[in-house]
Structure formats: C-alpha cells, structure tokens
Design a protein that fits this description.
about 75% helix, mainly alpha, Amino acid/polyamine transporter I
Length: about 350
C-alpha cells in the first residue's frame, strides 16, 4: 500500500470523524428522541456526548501505548495470533456492515424526498461511483473531501438562524421532565448518532502529527455534540414534540417550512448541500473498510478487489426492504458499535497487564 496516499493529519482526522457522525446521524435523531424522551432530547445528547468524548480519549491513549500500530496489530499482541485474527475479522465485518447500513439509509432519504421511482440498485451504483473513486486514491483524499462537512454544518446553522423568530421556547418546558429514565431510554438513537469515532483505532498509524491527535479527536466529538444540541433544540422548539414524533426526516421538513424572499424552494437548496455530507458517512466507512481488507489480506490486484467489494456492498445494502427493517438493522449496528467501544476500552486496561508490544516510553 502506498503510505503517502493514506497519510493524513490530525485536522483531517477531525473532519473525517465529524462527517461520519453528522452525515446520517442527524437525519432521524430529533424525531427518535422526541418519541423516547419528549422535549428533553438535547439533555440526552449532552450526556452521551460527554461519555463518548471520554471513550475517544481512552482510544487515543490505547493507540499511544503502541508505537504506530492499529487495533489489528494490537489485537495480536494482546490476544495472540488466532484469537486476535478472529477479533480482527469481526472488526472488519462491523465496518462493512456500517457501510451497507449507511448506504441503505442514504438511499432511503433520496427515495422519500427526491427520486421515488428510481430503483434502489441504480441509486446505490451512482452513489458509490464517487466513493470508489476516492477510495482508490487513499485515505488522504477521502479526508480532504470530508472537510465539506463544515460547509454543510454552517448552512444548517444559518437555516436555524433564519427560523429563529418562529421558535416557541415553551415547547422545551419544563426542562428535564423525562428525568434519568428518559436519558437511559435514549441510549440507542444517541449512540448511533455518535458512531464514527471508532475509525480512529484503524487509521491511527496513518496520522502524521500524532501529538495533536487527542486534541483534534476530542474536538471532533465536541463539534458533533454542540451541533446536535443546537439542531435538536431548534427542531423541537419549531415543531413541538407531538408533531416531531410523526416526522421521518425533520431536518428536511424544517428547510421546507422556511419561505425565503428570493429562493422559491429552500428545501431543494438544503438537500443539495446536505446530500454530500450524508454521502460522506458512506465514503468514510467504505474507505476504512477497504483499507482494512487490503491491509489484513495484503491484496495487490487493487482494481479487481475494489470492484468485488463494491458489488457485494451494493447487494448487501439492498437487504433491508422497508423503514422498519432499517430500524432493526440500525439497532444491531448500535449494539455492535457499543460492544466495539467497550472492547477498545478493555484493550486499553488489558494493555497494563499484558505489555507485549507496548511502547516503553509511554
């Protein structure tokens, strides 16, 4: 593998994490939180954002204990060749599953709001063409493209300002009505919305300025947390929790609710800006999965394996046939991501017991 094509900076890592988290995570988060904990969804986002930030810090600490190693090498140090190899396979399958589910969720949004008659297979093919192009050139180019997420976030915040005069703060009262039970119940949608930080464990060796990785990784999760809180507050106070419970894609509905003096269809402009951000979730997971497969299997025929990987991804992404099916598979991804996060924290603690491969200067 050409390391120069995969070398990234800590700032680029931050953009990649934010783009994976925000891309598809924000689409249904406000409505899911409204269904579970009413108008207190923003409190759940804050609590879980703090927890995930602590997990991110521990992942970086784990990576720093092993000199320029990814989780794939660390697993073999900690658990041996065979058990470590099995764990590596499960990690790759998790990332691949994430690609397929993000792709299906993305296509579902396009089906509902834009191209209702276009076959799913056709949409998948055209969605993955630019993703394959970027993955071909390496992580460096994926992370460069990921910086577009800041443009999308900025546009969303402008939209929030435009509808500010129509917000009803009484929709947010009383504060903390759902209590601790509401925070516990909102575990699944919040964790799913924050998933994306786990790619650090795979691509960490490619970061050129690792001394700044901790700061930028925590910064990425902080940006996501603040953005989620603002958007949940705005959408909840605009629609109210009862109407929000019935919305599928409330953020797109919010853009349709604003009437600009010059722009006739604000939602079309919003979707055109937000679709690349949503596609970045797919591109991020896709590139990390393909990078992992090539690294573990040491594949040399790059074109053939990229085509095969893409075709299998398209076929698997068409398994969920309805929104209810997508929710079931989303819950599986949430549980898998939670288990993976717990596993990474366990590896960090276990590294103090089994010190093979640990950097002696840490």
């Amino acid at each position: 593998m050409d390391k120069r094509k995969n070398n990234i900076t800590s700032a680029q890592l931050m953009g990649l994490i934010v783009s994976i988290q925000v891309g598809t995570g924000i689409v249904s988060l406000p409505s899911n939180l409204a269904t579970i904990c009413g108008h207190d969804g923003w409190i759940s986002v804050l609590v879980y954002g703090i927890i995930i930030t602590a997990v991110v810090a521990l992942i970086i600490k784990l990576m720093n204990r092993y000199n320029n190693k990814s989780i794939y090498e660390i697993n073999k140090f900690l658990y041996g060749k065979y058990l470590g190899g099995l764990l590596n396979l499960l990690i790759v399958l998790y990332f691949w599953y994430s690609v397929c589910l993000c792709l299906r969720g993305y296509i579902n949004v396009i089906h509902v709001d834009l191209l209702r008659s276009t076959p799913t297979f056709v949409l998948c093919v055209f969605t993955l063409i630019p993703t394959c192009y970027l993955a071909w050139y390496g992580l460096k180019y994926i992370t460069r493209f990921a910086q577009m997420i800041y443009l999308s976030i900025g546009f969303c915040l402008i939209l929030c300002l435009l509808v500010f005069s129509d917000l009803r703060l009484n929709f947010l009262m009383p504060i903390a009505q759902s209590g601790i039970e509401g925070i516990k119940a909102s575990f699944s949608p919040c964790i799913f919305a924050f998933l994306g930080y786990e790619v650090i464990s795979v691509i960490y060796p490619e970061i050129t300025n690792k001394q700044k990785a901790m700061k930028f990784a925590i910064g990425a999760n902080t940006i996501t947390t603040i953005f989620y809180i603002i958007l949940v507050l705005v959408i909840t106070s605009f629609f109210g929790e009862e109407m929000l419970k019935k919305s599928i894609n409330p953020i797109i509905k919010l853009s349709r609710s604003y009437r600009a003096p010059i722009i006739e269809r604000m939602d079309v402009l919003f979707i055109s800006v937000w679709l690349p951000a949503m596609a970045m979730s797919i591109a991020g997971y896709f590139s990390v999965t393909y990078y992992s497969i090539r690294k573990l299997l040491k594949l040399k025929k790059k074109v053939i394996y990229l085509i095969v990987f893409t075709l299998i991804t398209i076929l698997l992404s068409n398994v969920p046939k309805s929104i209810s099916n997508i929710k079931v598979y989303t819950n599986i991804m949430t549980r898998s991501g939670t288990i993976f996060s717990i596993f990474l924290v366990t590896c960090y603690l276990f590294s103090f017991i089994r010190k093979k491969g640990v950097n002696p200067h840490v």
